Amino acid sequence: MTPTPTDRGDACNNLALRKAARYLGATYDKALAPVGLRSTQFSILQKLHAQGEVTITQLADMIAMDRTTMASNLKPLAREDLVTVETSPTDRRARIAAITPEGVVRLKEALPLWRAVQAQFEDNFGTTEAAQLRAALNAVLDTGFEPWAE
Q1: Residue 134 to residues 25, 43, 78, 91, 141: CA-CA distances in angstroms?
Q2: How many CB atoms are located within 10 Å of the residue 82 CB?
Q3: pLDDT tens sequence across 37-75
Q4: Do 73 and 40 touch, CB atoms closer than 8 A?
Q5: Which of 41, 55, 93, 147 is deepest in the core (most CB within 10 A)?
Q6: Per-residue DSSP letters for 7-19?
């Protein structure tokens, strides 16, 4: 029996998405390396800077990540004093994450590097196409799956 494109993985949405994510992720990681950040860390700092204090669960939801992985991603940022993670004063079960002044400084150092790689991607891929890609990828989050539900 001859394998079909689907059988070979050529039509696998997950594979196509992960290949593109690894490619772009590595590109952004390389661009942000001079300031000692990875792209996920940059995104976390961006969200915390924009949102202020949030629970780890809220932050994980904003970035579409499970809570345990988010907690693991916050640890190196906390060790470098870029974020704080403390027990909520109103709910001892919740942990609150916040960006520190040093985190804001690092984010500001990273922004020109991020902007440059962002512009280069849009120049190469197309500004309209990049906006359409972001919209399509955001729409994926509304497909009804609950990957982190218990």
Answers
A1: 14, 15, 29, 35, 11
A2: 24
A3: 999 999 999 999 999 999 999 999 999 999 999 999 999
A4: yes
A5: 41
A6: HHTTT-HHHHHHH
